[in-house]
Design brief:
Order of helices and strands: HHEEH
Oligomer: single chain
Helix content: 40-55%
Radius of gyration: 13 Å
Strand order of the largest sheet: 1-2
Distance between the termini: 26 Å
């Protein structure tokens, strides 16, 4: 779930907003896919992101290499933690009120 398409010339997997995976952006993209009935891809993406986070139990990182899941940026990053919690606790709740 890169922030820039893999096919974009600006894509760089470890260059801040030019391609890495950020949990906040990925959460909303995957949740939107789920809401529109694309459950298989949404659930697969969720599982992949949770698996990446589990590889470094000592810390949740700011962002991750979108192809390998290698943690990047600051460790102990609260914003990412928030969205991991949302993946775990709110995944089956509807966004529509």
């Amino acid at each position: 779930w890169p922030t820039v398409s893999y096919h974009d010339p600006a894509y760089t997997p470890n260059h801040y907003w030019r391609g890495p995976t950020w949990y906040n952006v990925a959460y909303f993209a995957l949740k939107g896919l789920k809401e529109y009935g694309f459950n298989e891809i949404a659930n697969s993406g969720r599982e992949q992101l949770l698996q990446w986070a589990s590889l470094t139990p000592e810390a949740i990182y700011e962002y991750y290499d979108s192809k390998t899941g290698t943690p990047l940026g600051v460790n102990h990053f609260g914003w990412s933690c928030t969205f991991i919690i949302k993946f775990l606790l709110d995944w089956n709740k509807s966004l529509v009120l």
